[in-house]
Records
---
Amino acid sequence: MKRTLMLVVVLALAILSAGIARAADVVIYAALDKKTIDEIADAFKQATGLTAEVALQIEQAGTIASRVRTEASNARADIFIGGNSSIHDDLGKENFLAKYVSPEIAKAGIDKKFLDPSGYWSGWYLGALALLVNEKRFQAELAPKGLKLPASWDDLLNPAYKGEVIAANPATTGGAVIFVATQIFRLGSVDKGFQYIADLHKNVSQYTPGANGSIPLVAQGQAIAGIAWGHDLIRQKNAENLPVAVVFPKDDGYEIGGVSIIKGAPHLAAAQKFVDFILTPKPMEINAKNGLRYPTRGGVKMPEGVPAFENIQFVNYDQAAVGKNLDAWKKRWSDITGK
């Protein structure tokens, strides 16, 4: 009996020890597609020898933020990666994140506008807005009038586009908020920005609830031009052979994809090494290859057909101003459009 009991104890300890040995060095909550985060986790192990467990993978960053808040008294994960930086920003201000400024930031020369001044999150990729144009309708209807493909936001104001532009609703999608804010920042004032919105409204046929709602509609020829996220647009164009031209206009708007360390992280040192790694070229190349998202550092090779990061001219985007004025700007947009 004693021998049997001893054997059970030994086996139990062996199983426990094996479990401990297999425990990950860092635990991740990821608002990225599965392929991308799995490849990043593998690359992290190859680069550092540390293992990463993707404990939660869901592309809705708000869901991850809710979980971080729920688990605040006993954090179960170390890293929150992916999703708009505004979501990380809110968590930081609410004291759910740990501050960390990676030394890789200075090495990579990452622009401070892609970083949290308080040090709660680091921006490692960008999603850039783009114009899409139905090539067949443009060549048949607008090119004979002497028009060239639109190269700027202002080109959409041409009366030739009356009833031929599809945009999105800032009440229902963050992409449209970024579009509105981009006009304010590039034109230098709130009034000028909303004058642009009023002028564009004359040419808009409909506002979609999602940021990419224009893609199928323009591709089908229901309108000549639209606005969408560039990485999603290029991915769909390539996958479905869509008959649309893709243009990244001057003074482009963008979202910043964030990475942050959760307050109370069980593996803080490993979490810091993971953030260091994310800011190196390899994970940014993986993200660019799979998601067609732009890295925040230069020198990262982009897939064929995607313009180099250095060749896109971004607007000086003020995230703090957007957060402060969001409700007022949404109301003013609604007053102009009646939506």
---
Amino acid sequence: MPSKPPALRPAAARKPWHHSGKSRHERGYGAAWDKLRKQVLTEEPTCRVCLVERGVVTAATQVDHIKPKADGGTDDRSNLRPLCRPCHDRKSAADRGHRTRAEIGVDGWPV
């Protein structure tokens, strides 16, 4: 028996990355976004958060909306910043209201 369409599945059965059945193009991440993303990463190839907050140079692999598009943010360059994957994951989790774990130092205490 085929499974139910995503919209009819119980919320617990839906994957967290499922975006109401919309494609990346329908959510505003089409060819224009790919071009803008490449431009941002070319202009600033390092993670802004790692550099500013921790003083560590880390390659940026993600482009983050400072104010999320879902909250009215735009693709304007002033609303975009390059981040490494761990920083982007932390920021995205915080945007969704998730708590983050404290970073633990080599001595076993929170940093």
---
Amino acid sequence: MHHTISFKNAFKGIWTAVTTQNNLRVHFLLGSLVIFAAAYLRLSIQHVLVLVLAIALVMVAEMVNTAIEFLSNAITLEQNHFIKHAKDVSAGAVLLSAIFAVLIGLMIFIPALL
């Protein structure tokens, strides 16, 4: 029973993130396009696996960023330099993961297209 509640809450969290965060929807759309392109180009399972992991990393980073934003806003909406730093660092994590995901994608797709 406890596991059922945990899974239910986890799916609620995913749903909350997807329905409230435009960036997560964009990542989901772009990730889906990447996977469809990989299938169209008949990339190896190893390449597809690396792409899926890169996409997942970006989406997880976006969800952690969202959680930090929600929690920070629940604590206070007033200016607080510690909260600002936390939000900036979590946004930076999303950016860094997205940059590396793009680099990974380029390393996989460019040779496949040549």
---
Amino acid sequence: MAKQRSKTDVVQSSGNVFSDLGLPNADEKQTKVRLAVAINQIIQKQQLSQVAAARRLNINEPKISELSNYRMEEFSVERLMNFLTPLEQRDHQEQRRSK
């Protein structure tokens, strides 16, 4: 005997999971996650340890751990944007050297 499936409505995403879940400050949360993804990708690409990344960003290691685990409560959008500058400068310097 076949099991009966219950019908579930499928709702298309708005593109912002935080908004879809009805969370407050959804746009800010999404922006923070996107910035954190970019920062973490650069850190991985440059093969920085947490110690080296913390020094480069002038923060302590626990903050790097929070960032790498996407615990964004302690970070403002502005602060995350400011983290990109020292990381990108190093990335551009390395690209010029490899040419």
